[in-house]
């Protein structure tokens, strides 16, 4: 039995509220803030279980929901074994941190479960996308205003922002990653609004009218949202945040032109407008040259992130199969640190290395395959489905995944609950756009 429409409306709105809320209290990257999120997700789950019991509804309404959750269930079980020590060869060097990671993983799994079960229509899918965009616009506006008026400390928590926008995040690169993922979804949605009809021959007047219509029509709200978020992204001064985003935009746009059966005729002009209008014109106003200068000034001699990666390799070699325990990088790494660094590293600044240190190579590979399969689903949606909304959101999801794969080589974005929840939402959207029925039965393919 499928969930009732009224119940699903309630749960989706509750999840949308969480998406908007989670970055506000320091990206929920404090125990008190994350505890609030945990209680919220657990409370929603209890309500959902009660609803299933009363309505005699199955826990999974579609077969694909089980497969979507399978890697998270496996990760939760593996972390439980690490924490409990039931298997002598699988344990942790930091019981407290592993316990915290176990609770986080379970709550993330519950969130995916609720989202996959209750997002049952294109309308609800739009609600989720609206929540992502609204959340990012709030962060971008807040971070940009604080940066431009140059306050010495943030007005709420008293953090020093310096010359980089952070929004309500503690770390500017997490802020940049959050915005880049959200821009990807907004851009994909905007693509779904483009016309796909093609004229027999090229008409410059029709072409310019199409460009003008795209930029100033009812789509202007989405377009303005993208501009606001890109301003925040540029003001973050994040090197890989900016480089990863524009690289992902180019890669997925070229990919879409190859696999779209009937690509929107305004896709190329829209991508070009992002570079000309947003990167060059808007970027020049808000200091994109500072980001460029930071990239040019990057030196392996001055950077110590590569030293952290180098010193982490022996840890992986010694515990490549089972890892040292979820959340244990901060505990185990100082024992292998060859020399003191100029900065303090409680994370590896490389998610691939950190996951391998904490969970082992096998579990890291399984999670990596899960992410790549979600990317494959997004590409299949762009190729197979006829629904413009689903194809557009799939484009945005693919772009977000490519960006995250790039950005995670130099940062620890998945250690921030706000970024992790957003990324898991995007991975779930890959499954939803692939398997949700269309509002129009003739386009349910």
TrEMBL record:
Membrane-crossing residue ranges in chain numbering: 7-26, 32-55, 67-90, 102-120, 127-149, 169-191, 211-235, 241-260, 267-288, 352-377, 389-406, 418-436
GO molecular function, one term: ligase activity
Pfam family, one: Wzy_C
Membrane topology: Multi-pass membrane protein
Subcellular locations according to the entry: Membrane
Start and end residues of each O-antigen ligase-related domain: 224-367
UniProt keyword list: Ligase, Membrane, Transmembrane, Transmembrane helix
Xref: InterPro entries: O-antigen_ligase-rel_domated, WaaL-like
Main location: membrane
Protein name as it appears in the record: O-antigen ligase family protein
Organism (species): Shewanella metallivivens
């Amino acid at each position: 039995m499928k969930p009732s429409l009224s119940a699903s409306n309630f749960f989706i709105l509750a999840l949308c509220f969480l998406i908007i809320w989670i970055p506000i209290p320091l990206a929920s990257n404090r125990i008190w803030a994350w505890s609030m999120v945990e209680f919220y997700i657990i409370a929603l789950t209890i309500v959902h279980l009660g609803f299933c019991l009363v309505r005699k509804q199955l826990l999974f309404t579609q077969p694909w929901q089980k497969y979507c959750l399978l890697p998270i269930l496996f990760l939760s079980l593996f972390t439980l074994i690490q924490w409990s020590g039931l298997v002598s060869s699988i344990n942790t060097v930091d019981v407290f941190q592993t316990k915290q990671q176990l609770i986080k993983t379970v709550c993330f799994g519950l969130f995916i479960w609720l989202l996959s079960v209750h997002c049952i229509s294109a309308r609800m899918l739009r609600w989720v996308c609206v929540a992502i965009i609204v959340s990012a616009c709030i962060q971008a506006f807040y971070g940009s205003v604080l940066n431009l008026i140059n306050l010495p400390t943030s007005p709420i928590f008293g953090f020093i922002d310096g010359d980089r926008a952070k929004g309500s995040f503690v770390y500017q690169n997490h802020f940049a990653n959050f915005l880049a993922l959200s821009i990807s979804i907004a851009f994909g949605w905007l693509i779904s609004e483009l016309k796909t009809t093609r004229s027999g021959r090229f008409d410059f007047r029709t072409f310019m009218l199409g460009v003008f219509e795209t930029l100033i029509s009812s789509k202007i709200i989405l377009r303005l949202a993208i501009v606001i978020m890109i301003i925040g992204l540029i003001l973050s001064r994040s090197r890989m945040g900016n480089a990863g985003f524009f690289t992902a935009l180019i890669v997925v746009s070229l990919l879409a032109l190859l696999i779209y059966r009937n690509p929107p005729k305004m896709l190329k002009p829209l991508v070009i407008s992002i570079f000309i209008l947003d990167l060059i014109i808007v970027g020049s106003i808000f200091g994109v040259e500072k980001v460029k200068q930071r990239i040019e000034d990057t030196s392996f001699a001055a950077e110590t992130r590569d030293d952290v990666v180098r010193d982490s390799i022996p840890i992986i070699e010694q515990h490549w199969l089972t890892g040292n325990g979820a959340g244990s990088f901060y505990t185990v790494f100082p024992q292998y640190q060859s020399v003191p660094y100029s900065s303090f590293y409680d994370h590896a600044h490389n998610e691939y290395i950190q996951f391998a240190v904490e969970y082992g190579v096998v579990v890291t590979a399984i999670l990596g395959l899960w992410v790549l399969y979600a990317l494959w689903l997004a590409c299949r949606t762009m190729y197979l489905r006829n629904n413009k909304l689903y194809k557009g959101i799939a484009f945005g999801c693919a772009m977000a995944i490519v960006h995250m794969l790039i950005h995670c080589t130099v940062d620890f974005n998945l250690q921030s609950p706000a970024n992790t929840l957003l990324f898991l939402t995007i991975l779930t959207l890959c499954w939803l756009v692939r398997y949700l029925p269309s509002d129009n039965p003739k386009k349910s393919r």
